[in-house]
Amino acid sequence: MSLVPDGTPLVLLNAFPVDRSQWDPLLEALPELPGDIITFDVPGIGDMPLPDEEPSLELIADAAVLAMREVTGHDTAVWIGCSMGGYIAMAVAERHGGAVAGIGLLGTKAEADTEEARDARLALAEQVDGAAGHPDPRGAAEGLVGTQGEAREALVERVAANIARHGGDGIAWGQRAMAARPDRTEVLAALDVPAFVAVGEHDAIAGQPAARAMAAALGVEPVVLEGVGHLCAVEAPERVAALVADLIARAETAS
Asked: Is 45 a domain residue?
């Protein structure tokens, strides 16, 4: 999607294991922005084929920066990452700090997995290797959506259908890439760019302590989005759109 091509580009990095259509509600809610907007799938998800290389968030980060620069002609962008997308955005900040004009982190964490979480990721990766897809899309979706009441079922069904579209090998690749990530709290502390950190009130995957730790490293106040869970840009697109638009404006002023 191209708008006015001379403004700071916006790169949206989606959660796992959903594809870039995660961002459709946010894109509809965003006001007109000054630059290009880029979304793309991670390896093995949606339209993106699996690479020959070993699973690595760093591989995705390098490719994302290269693609952003080739597509937009700009050296820097504002990077918004949700969950796994946040891990990728932080890898971009570590490896390509000069490409970051601003960063927004949604439902993610800077610390590495605990041993228990890493083991769970690797066990799921083994389970889905060569499989048609995720063993329980509905169960996975239930854990990603925090919205309650009448709107919940439609959101869960939408997320479950998205998860069910992706093959087991892609899910395994992503889990192994996330399991290998390091702690990047100090990467955030070294950044000197406009930033925000937001987390859903009912996010049981990333959680508010992780949001507070990232916000402290960046020198900002964390935003808790009431009534929603892990996929806050899907569940509360208007509220996230306001955060993104403000971040873009601050990045434009700082550039």
From this structure: yes
Q: Burial-class residue 192 by CB neighbours within 10 Å (0-12, 13-18, 19+).
A: exposed
Instruction: Look at the chain and report how many structural domains it folds into.
Output: 1
Tell me the whole-structure pTM to 2 decimals. Answer: 0.96
Res 225 pLDDT > 50: yes
State how beta strands 100-106 and 77-82 pair.
Answer: parallel
Alpha-carbon distance 5 to 91, whole Å? 26
Q: 97: helix, coil or strand? A: helix
* Residue numbers of the domain that contains 48: 10-112+183-254
**CATH number, domain with residue 45:** 3.40.50.1820
Let me know if residue 5 belongs to a domain.
no
Residue 68 lies in a domain: yes
pLDDT of residue 174: 97
Interstrand relation of 100-106 and 37-39 (parallel, antiparallel or unpaired): unpaired
* Residue-wise pLDDT tens digits, 67-115: 999 999 999 999 999 999 999 999 999 999 999 999 999 999 999 999 9
Token reading at 117:
């979480």
> For all residues of the chain together, what is the average pLDDT?
96
Q: Tell me the C-alpha distance between 92 and 184, whole Å.
A: 11
Report d(CA 199, CA 75) in Å as an integer.
29
Nearest to 50 by CA among 180, 176, 181: 176
Confidence at residue 5, expressed as pLDDT on a 0 to 100 scale: 55
Q: What is the DSSP letter of 39?
A: E
Pick from 247, 240, 199: which is nearest to 223 by CA?
Answer: 199
Residue among 229, 215, 43, 213 nearest 149 (CA): 229
Q: Is residue 188 part of a domain?
A: yes
Let me know: does 249 contact 2? Beta carbons within 8 Å. no
